[in-house]
Amino acid sequence: MTGRWQMMVALSLCVALFSANWTALYAAQQAISRDLHLTSTAGVWLIYLYPAALLGVLIPVKGRLSVLLLGLGGFALASVVAAFAPNGAMLVGCRAGQGLAAAIVLRAGFELTREHFRGTEWWPALVIPAALAVPALIAGPVIGGVITDFLSFRWVFLINVPLTVVALVLVALFTPRTAPHAHARA
To answer: What sign does the CA torsion over 46, 51, 56, 61 have?
Structure first.
């Protein structure tokens, strides 16, 4: 496996993390609403602001790897702050921050993929993360429910931190620093 494919695995793990995070709050929403006294409107914002913020994926990025790493760091930071949010307004804001950080990572990851994969490798490089996103979206509510039932809804956010650090390290280690030349690819 070349560095490019190892990078693809690391980026795919990011996609799976963001996808599971998207739906994990579905199961935790009642506990969050009860503990933080959320209004029904704030509860809706809590759930739907994350995917709305993912529209930030349309924002063009430069400095692909550095932006991706900053996005991962921002996702971890927003997750920590969300875990300790004293009220619903802060939690909703953190959720928007998570979504925007995830969008930055996804956009930078797409650009890195476009830079390192061409021709017949392009579609498999795009399909691998998408194939992991679907089961992660389905697993999110199960994960969120188990964590909320046995620990606290706050752990739904805290679990993101070590997973994001692992993703950050893998992306940093396995992303080639230079774009391969078209004639060098097999």
So the answer is: positive
